[in-house]
TrEMBL record:
Pfam families: NB-ARC
Signal peptide bounds: none
Database matches in PANTHER family: PLANT BROAD-SPECTRUM MILDEW RESISTANCE PROTEIN RPW8, TIR-NBS TYPE DISEASE RESISTANCE PROTEIN-RELATED
InterPro entries (UniProt xref): Apaf_helical, NB-ARC, P-loop_NTPase, WH-like_DNA-bd_sf
Keywords, comma-separated and alphabetical: Repeat
Gene for this chain: CKD18
Protein name: Putative CC-NBS-LRR protein
NB-ARC domain segment(s): 1-142
One MF term in the entry's GO annotations: ADP binding
Organism listed in the record: Pinus monticola
Amino acid sequence: MGGLGKTTMALSLCNDKEIKGAFQNNIVFITVTHSPNLKGILETMWENIVRTKKPEFQNVDDARRQLQQQLLRQAHRTLVVLDDVWSNENLEKLLFEGEGYKTLVTTRDRSIIRSTISTRLYELPLLDDTDALPLFCFWAFGQKTIPSNADEQLVNQVQAECKGLPLALKVIGSSLHGRPHPAWENTKNKLLNGESISDYNKEGLLRCLETSIDVLDEEALECFLDLGSFPEDRKIPVDALLDIWVYVRKIKRHDASLILLELASRNLLNLTSNLRSQTINYGSASELYCSQHDVMR
């Protein structure tokens, strides 16, 4: 199921001190997606694991053969994370063996994972109220508890309708941040009339998340829809996005920047920097990229 937090958990594991120590910082994170460039991924794996000049691979099978041979020759602990894998055919092209070599796979379809003696499966559960409420409150109020001046019953009702799905809690909570009581009531009613999102039902999830998009004005909504024209699971240069809004939609650059920040504040897109520093400099769009969870596309 999309939005459970599989990618977030995988990234957290990659940044865990104990994990980094166990693999001596030899950790490679790769987003595979629905339609991956397998040859490009294998080239990336060679560059990050073998760390020598990449051969001129003839095709995917040649790249896989040479990489496997190299991994059998070298012996150092390596963790490769294959995130968002959709098919067994693609997965099999990216699995390798080697001393100290481990692979972590995230997928929405457990049937693509071949069962072996060394395979360990873990299914992320939906959050219970104990974990869901603090997450929802963090995005809705900037704290992990319900404020004393908020309608506790209403907050609990809206949170409960997110059915413990982290993406829904994050996006809907953000959309209600600073909103008046009628907006909360309106969101609650819309969620109550929607489908359950606790089952594998993308339409139900999207209907749930529509309440976050409804708060956008017409101009911001059109800008949000423009994100769908970019390839899935790719970082979008903010400069390119702003240019579309400025030159195609005829929006002033300052206003376009404000729309970008509004979408980010509502968790309808994620902003990241291409610099090593974790600090994002909003004054320089050339240093920024944005991306979206594919459920939002």
